[in-house]
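Thread: Newbie trying to understand structure tokens

Hi all, I'm a second-year student working on a class project, and my supervisor (Dr. K.) asked me to get a predicted structure for one chain before our next meeting. I've only ever worked with sequences, so writing a 3D structure as a token string is new to me. If someone could post the tokens and maybe explain what I'm looking at, I'd be very grateful. Here's the chain:
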Amino acid sequence: MVLRSNIPPRRLAVGDSGQERSPISGAGDNISSPARALEPSCLAPEGDQLRDAGLPADVVETILSARAPSTRRSYALKWRVFESWCVTHHADPVHCQVVSVLEFLQEKLSSGISPGTLRVYVAAISACHTLIDGVSVGKHPLVARFIRGARRLRPPTRATVPSWDLAIVLEGLSGTPFEPLESAHVRFLTLKMFFLMAITSLKRIGDLQALATSPSCLDFAPGLVKAILHPHPNYLPKVPFSTINPVVLEAFSPPPFTSPEQERLHLLCPVRALQIYVHRTSQWRKSEQLFICYEGRNRGAAATKRIMSHWVRDAIALAYEARGQASPLELRAHSTRGVASSTAIARGAPLQQVCDAAGWSSPHTFIRFYSLDVHATPGSHVLESTSQSHV
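---
Reply by user tm_fold:
Sure, no problem. This is what the structure looks like when written as tokens:
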């Protein structure tokens, strides 16, 4: 994946920077869809508190729209769990005392919930609960000390080595049943295309979901030497920027081939896979979203982020099976970002350039959450070939 300064970025209009936009979802020709209706059980208490403070209705609506749609859905889910707990314990979820909140959190901690997830529960409760002792639930001294205690009792662990070997996956994707792509089952075509896009772009699933096939969003350079993909104009990334850079895929080992090895490596070219995927799916495509469902009653409709996450795991598992090896345990779709970014850094890519490509707000995010010991993974050098040593 290459970010080029000569590719004009999409700028967010000043008036749009504070608006929430939904990621691409659903079927049909209209790629953008209204933000999903959020559960009133979470938003109503928070909105009531803001209105009780004397704020106008339109101001309240703008404040409620400050969080990303995915965050609002997560809060709504966590709030429903807390509401249900309060009902069984005869407590008012909006006005209960801090002891009730702490009892709820302790029950979740004892059940195996991680301290990180507990913080999401606290944030969701804080958004809807009234102030306790003049402060929000999340800033209450006892709640803050509880979270610190939970982290000390159960410190977070992070794998320093990915559970899967990139070299094995790429080798598996180079043969049957993924090749030849022109005649492979559309399932294997989709899985291979999506994995190559994820591993070479460093993008989040939501960013990949925003890519589209419309002429204004997808352009192949003459000779298929590169492909330029812009997100749909209605897309707002998880980490907002003043500009939204396109994804630029460069062809890998393009023809004419000078050796059988070049021809073999060209099977991993993301531009080639993208061109074949767009051509083959055009006959039954129902949405301009780039990645669409390939089977069932939703065939041709826009794929959801959940489906795309399954695609990454399925691609890794099937690639391992194609090489005659057992699928790795505990596969996570998000691990592609750690593998790709860490390998790029190990091969000399500038840290800030990697962060800009991946959409991280600062290098600290990469170092803390995504940096992996790629040198401990045999064959990780293969990524250098597929990405042309660029970010």
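A couple of things are worth pointing out once you decode it. Residues 40-153 form a domain with the DNA polymerase; domain 1 fold (CATH 1.10.150.130). The mean pLDDT is 79. Feel free to ask follow-ups in this thread.
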